[in-house]
Please model this.
Amino acid sequence: MADDFGVPTSESRGQTVLHVPREQLADFVMQLRDEHGFNMCLDVTAVDYLAYEAPRHLPPEVEPERFEVVVVLLSMTDRRRIRLRVQVPQDDPVVPSLFDVHPGTEAMEREAYDMFGIRFDGHPDLTRILMPEDWLGHPLRKDYPVGRIPVQFKGVENAR
Amino acid sequence: MPFDQGLEGLDHNIITGTLESLVKWARQKSMFPATFGLACCAIEMMATGGPHYDLARYGMEVFRASPRQADLMIVAGRVSQKMAPVLRQIYDQMMEPKWVISMGVCASSGGMFQNYAIVQGVDQIVPVDVYAPGCPPGPETLMHAILTLYSLIERGELTRRRDATGGGAGVHVEQLDGQTSGAAPVSIGKY
Amino acid sequence: MPADTTTGERDDVRGGLAAETYEGRQELAPRKGSKADELLREMGAVLRLSETEAAELSSTEPGEDETMIINMGPQHPSTHGVLRLMLELQGETVLRTKPIVGYLHTGMEKQGEDLTYLQGPTNVTRMDYASPMANELVFSMATERLLGIEDDIPPRAQWIRMLMAEMNRIASHLLFLATNGMDIGAIGMMLYGWREREETLRFFEKVTGLRMNHNYIRPGGVAADLPDDWRDDVLRLLEPLPERLHEFDLLMTGQPIWRERLQGVGVITTQEAIALSATGPILRSTGVPWDLRRDMPYLFYDQVDFDVVVGTYGDCFDRYAIRLNEVRESIRIVHQIVEKLPPGDYRIQDKKVTPPPRARIDESMEALIHHFKIFTEGFKVPEGEVYVGIESPRGEIGCYMVADGSARPYRMHIRGPSFVNLQTLPHMMRGGFLADGVAIISSVDPIMGEVDR
Model:
């Protein structure tokens, strides 16, 4: 099925990936829901590409940023999933919220905020969900340490 | 003052000596655990209470939900940073005499999760009397830990040490699961 | 009766769909659902209050007719692990709810970035600890997809994975029946459920070495072959199950107390369930026959014959009945697997991915080096990203993995079904009693390990 959604499209391991500019995210997801039948949002998550050393394989029109918000949608009638990747810059980590289109993204967006610090504009209650309310820092960012207790003796530098 | 040391401090005559062993027997044989099942170890704890392994035959008939009615806290599962104050609060709400069994490696030492989110050993929060290793420890290991605790209580040393230092006994038991093919016999519970 | 109030409200909201009253058909404009949140915001079931605000409120005295905000959990006998609920009650009726999670947050996704792909299943398996094979399976499938070997996995390995996944589904649903029974009050059910589950755990111990958290399904296949007499074990295990399930039916399904406690309680509509991204038995209880094993088949589910169990009313009774019947369907699938499982390799013979058999290490230097590299450094996965989703007993479990060419995943995210399904909880509890709330939590069957990860 080669349908053109009007945004740069790429493919990863046989799965269709759409690269959506972040201002258009909520409208685009609504368009996908109403016109193309992607009626369920399966997952909203984020990736921090700070320490990514391999080439990122993005379409030429897409400008790579530090964060990426990934949205996985499901069309139950067509029985397929589609993935959206949204580039989010480090100095302005704000993305429109998908809550108005898919209310089920409420908890997922809270988790992305908690773990990465990406704010979702229009989310009714953007607070920490997994960490305690007063926690400082965003654990899944690459500049946040794992928090391992240092062990005195360690033969090899990089091994666990 | 002899009363500060509990029953141990009394000069025993025939009546109070028997009373002390009666009290110890009663404490052992009807210990009620507080439900503190957090993660995978909770499933194994429930399996220990199930019909195959049957914890009720050792007197642990019911798992009391209210910490006021419980003597034993089996910390079954990994304790996260958010849960740690809750754990301490439940422990504080329990009435003396109380004991703690740390079930599983996550509760004993943080387990395989050495990261920002897990408390590296529940003994940083509460005094632990018996550590049961395993991920998760099977019902046999948990029973071994519980019976070890019983034998500690029977010897009386546990209550004495707790009153003196406020710390737990810190006994490590061995993992006993899956040894169906006749390994060296282990005396269950005797410490 | 609280059940009536909820359906009455729903009629207003559904507008053109199911307006029962004459006035409704006249006055309300049909609603296309273009603003999905309007439906849910109008219901107003979610209590949007932070914990600190609630703590401040609790210190002031509530007025006579004001609602009360109470806290349930995280340590509570019926919250299925460490789930905390903030409930706004009017008397005994629940108005709004806020589930507060995070009490079991283990940092598994961060830990996953530190572990190699072969160590990954040990980490991931502890997320949904009632059905660990599903977690391992989705992680392994995502890794294989990134490696590009998903079509080269030997058929025997895939059939073994199916066998393990279905046995795990049986074990997980038995756990649900046990805990659900106990939450409603049939305490004997707890013992019966565990009795059946012990047999499946014994089989798992024989095959994988562990009762739980097996780390058996690994990228490339499975860790070890099935023992020779596994067919006898499985058939012996399954033999008393249909009769025992019939006993559970006698104990629960037909009983008036059970029915009154569960029917009409925790009703959710199809529109709400899809809007809230609920999958698994919750979605199927509303009447949508969506099961990934049949609709987007993976492994060899398209070669076995089974039915997808679907409910009608979207209430707790439907979810209970669906899970009970899914055990029956899984038994059917396992019988077919027992017949169809072919001989062959139990893992792919790609030397770069799977470790060599232990005996060869003594003979061949190359085997020793491969073994060493795989277990210390790990095999490298070419860069890319992939999302794989399968049907776990709780719904769709998905793994989104980003690889960067090194031996460790760059980002490993697991879409836990219970995390998303918990969002349906406020909407199901609204208007019901507090005691119904316990039944509803139990019917959602959350496993907090995969909620908090």
